[in-house]
């Protein structure tokens, strides 16, 4: 894997879109001026406060790419679990601890490349994250000691491994399911402006969350799902 370190960039995902195709290129930035989250949201990207990293790989079929959020979620989880066992996954692609989000993944499939953007909150204080829509935290706020370079090194290994799993159609969704506490629970689903309750049964081979709502099976491609309180 070739790694490029940048002091500042608009977004590491955008940088890799502009760059000539190179399978296995990784770009890391100290700061992003236009960090992107999913669904057009911003990703907080202050200098030295987070790990902002993107990877470029050869494209994979749309069907396999639909599993990339899940597979790379497991990759990030494996790295974070070396620091603390309490991290878990929230379908479809967030990593949580103590009910708060610490990391998110933004996969982008282009005709000639797959870009995987990963953000992990490292040094933000609770106050700095308090204005975010979703309750969020950082390794510092959780008092978990870490070494940024070590996280990056482990992440490179895990991301390469899960890309290979995806390509060989060998990613096992059970790895996600067993680290996702939603599965098997009564959940509340918020879809656009609708809200309904159901039971999360599992994740299907396309990466959809399978829920039972009023005795009927529903497959969700995305959405905000939480354990019913
Ligand atoms: C999300 O949970 O909404 C996804 C967040 C993804 C953030 C990372 S930071 C590195 C890469 N560059 C970006 O602009 N976004 C991703």
Please provide a written account of the structure.
The protein has 229 residues and is of the alpha+beta class. It has six helices and twelve strands. The protein has a seven-stranded mixed sheet, with helices on both faces. A five-stranded antiparallel sheet has the order 11-10-9-8-12. α3 (68-81) packs antiparallel against α5 (148-167). The chain is globular, with a radius of gyration of 17 Å. Biotin (BTN) binds next to α1, β3, β6 and β7.
Give the gist of this structure.
This protein is an alpha+beta fold and 229 residues long. Helix content is 24%, strand content 34%.
Overall form: globular
Uncertain residue ranges = none
User: What structural class results from the helix and strand content?
Assistant: alpha+beta
- Approximate helicity band: 10-25%
Q: Radius of gyration over alpha carbons?
A: 17 Å
How far apart, in Å, are the first and last alpha carbons?
A: 44 Å
Please give the count of helices: 6
Bound ligands = biotin
Mean pLDDT: 95
Question: Strand order, biggest sheet?
Answer: 1-2-3-7-6-5-4
Portion in beta strands = 25-35%
Main β-sheet description: 7 strands, mixed
Q: Kindly state the number of beta strands.
A: 12
SSE string, helices as H and strands as E: EHEEHHEEEEHHHEEEEE
